[in-house]
Amino acid sequence: MMRGVWIALAITLTAEVPVVTLLYRSQWMRMAATCVAANVVTNLWMNMVLIRWVHSYESYLLIGESAALCVEALTYVVASRQRGVTWALLASATANLASFALGNLVRYVG
Fold it and tell me: Can you tell me the distance from the alpha carbon of 19 to that of 54, in angstroms, rounded to the nearest whole number?
């Protein structure tokens, strides 16, 4: 199980960090670090804690992805000096969609 948790985190970071840095180009270094920190927290919480609390995969996805979107967007608002809440929500949603798609691709191919 632990191996899968670290693989999921690696996939998430591989997908989300480039998206966030592209959307915050003028602050790419700060936002890349922010993205890594936020995703370590949300991804590990989803894959080590939440997965034990819910009884269906659908509930796990709905609760986990919604929480990740909100926590990461809030983190981006706080860290960003030039963008607001709408942009942070867009960045978080886009990054999480990319991560979800890459994770499903890896799972499908692997």
Answer: 29
pLDDT tens, 86-108? 999 999 999 999 999 999 999 88
pLDDT in tens, 38-88: 999 999 999 999 999 999 999 999 999 999 999 999 999 999 987 799 999
| Whole-number pLDDT of residue 83 | 79
In whole angstroms, how far apart are CA 54 and each of 8, 48, 67, 96, 103? 18, 12, 14, 20, 20
The candidate with the shortest Cα–Cα distance to 72, out of 46, 102, 96, is 96
Q: How many other C-beta atoms lie within 10 A of the C-beta of residue 85?
A: 12
Sign of CA dihedral 60, 63, 64, 65: positive
Whole-angstrom distance, CA of residue 41 vs CA of residue 37: 7
Q: Which amino acid is at 72?
A: E
Sign, CA torsion 80/11/44/46? positive
